[in-house]
Amino acid sequence: MDSIQQFLSAETFAVAGASARTHKYGYKVFKALLDAGRETYPLNPITEEIEGHRAYPKIADLPIVPEALSIITPPEVTQQVITDAIEAGVKHIWMQPGAEHKQASQLAREVGVNVIDDGSCILVLLARQS
Known about the structure:
Shape: globular
Number of strands: 7
Distance between the termini: 20 Å
Helix content: 25-40%
CATH topology: Rossmann fold
Strand content: 15-25%
């Protein structure tokens, strides 16, 4: 099973950079995972609710540790999100195009996290599955 299949086979997901603004990619990724029937939690430090789901400031605030994390944040934010994800025990991390952070990716790989940071977009893959 390749890294994308491993990510998509997770049972629980979180989206860092989830947004309540429907034109933003953070909204589209969160909504696509929900629409695909995935248990998904939004991470956003300044939004309280997205699509009727409580938003959480950071991974440590979630009621569970998600198996998989999709990241749609600027690279300088991505670094901290990945550090938090590693500490929490997240197994799969997918940095959406533009969110990549080379050093954080390397650190995650070194501790055994499945990392996708090759420019692949989860929206494209979820659209193919529906």
